[in-house]
Amino acid sequence: MRIWENSLLAVSALISNKTRSFLASVGIMIGIASVIVMVAIGKGSQKEVLDVISRMGENLITLTAGEVKRRGGKLKLEGNVTNLTVKEANLLLEEIDELKRVAPYEYKETKVKYRNFLAPVTVAGSTPEFLEVRKYSVADGSFFDYRDLNLAKRVAVLGKTTVKNIFGEEDPLGQVIRIESVPFTVIGVFESKGMDADGVDQDDILLTPLTTLLRRVMNQTFIRTIYFQAVSKESMDRAVENLNILLRSRHRLKDDQENDFEVQSQLELEKLKKETSETFTTLIVGVAAISLIVGGVGILAVMLTSVKERTREIGLRRAVGASQRDIVFQFLTESLLIGFLGGGVGIAIGTGLSFSLDQWGPWTLIVEPASIQIATGVCVAIGIVFGVFPAVKASRMDPMEALRIE
């Protein structure tokens, strides 16, 4: 019964000082709303990055000749980059059970001529397996087949960015373009893929049969990249391990020698990007959480003021039989209610703003139930932590001394 009476007294005290109670909860509102929105932004950006990685290919493993290093924000190949061949790509597929498909790949940054117009393009070559391994699909026209590959046919399939750069609004199908003075016929256009995980435009591509590129354009026999598709996500780590072992053996590398190749799985890329995103989100949330501390200090100041103003009330309650425990409970309840008021409004603002930005803004925001549960727990913690001192201080007042104060 006393708990109920103490709760009613706490509510009555807050209602009688509505403005002060509301202002005390503003810091909590802003802090909780900020944390929910920031976490939603972080989760949304993480999902976008993982979706981009997923669109690069299913169970994708990339083998690159030489050592890949980032220079000036771009990936650069260093060391021996002439040690991979198409024959080796096929042998690796045959010898490693965890691999399902292979797509040897080579590229060259050059200019493509159409009529009297020159445009810079990433000219690449691969095999028909490229579609499955790299998750590309043809929007218009067709893709080259193994007959085109074996005969080194001069045909090309273009990405949307390449079409725009070369042809503008003109229909590219059937048109003849020139790469290094060699004529190629455009037979297809890819569906748009967007940016990859490193911010490279996957639509800025002109793809030809690999044999055509190597013989007629680049005049070389080696390749720098091989894309593999693993049998399953669970088998990717084992596939990477086997690739490293087999390649070191084939390239006759001693135990003290570094790899002259680099193997990267989609799982490693996902993990790296996820860790980066989580670190960034934690940093932002930490900054936003400072306002929660400010809000807690606001509750502390309001409760201390309230205790001082209500000294006679406290003395009177003690004189008529209220225990120290009753006084602590009353003032702690007031502190908790202020925390819940700020937290409840903050949760409503944060979730509402997150859903609004997700629906009508250019961003992807994901509100997770866990963030709301944590926010509720934070409100309780703030109410208790910053309410304990004023509550204990009120309970330790001497009843007779309190009644003498005017």
**Arithmetic mean pLDDT:** 81
Spatial ordering of strands, largest sheet: 4-5-10-7-9-8
Share of residues in strands: 15-25%
Unreliable spans: none
Tell me the overall shape: elongated
Keywords for this entry:
alpha+beta, 13 helices, two-stranded antiparallel sheet, 406 residues, 12 strands
Q: How are the SSEs placed, and which strands pair?
A:
Layout: H1 2-16, H2 18-55, E1 60-65, E2 67-71, E3 74-78, H3 86-95, E4 99-114, E5 117-126, H4 130-133, E6 138-141, H5 146-150, E7 155-158, H6 160-167, E8 176-179, E9 182-190, E10 206-209, H7 210-218, E11 225-230, H8 236-250, E12 261-265, H9 266-309, H10 311-319, H11 324-360, H12 369-395, H13 399-404
Parallel strand pairs: 5-10, 7-9
Antiparallel strand pairs: 1-11, 1-12, 2-3, 4-5, 4-8, 4-11, 6-9, 7-10, 8-9
Helix pairs in contact: 1-11, 2-9, 2-11, 2-12, 9-11, 9-12, 11-12
Description of the structure:
- It contains 13 helices and twelve strands.
- With 406 residues, it is an alpha+beta fold.
- It folds into two domains: 184 residues, no CATH class; 122 residues, no CATH class.
- The strands form two sheets. The protein has a six-stranded mixed barrel. It has a two-stranded antiparallel ribbon with strand order 2-3.
- A hairpin with a 2-residue loop joins β4 and β5.
- It is elongated, with a radius of gyration of 33 Å.
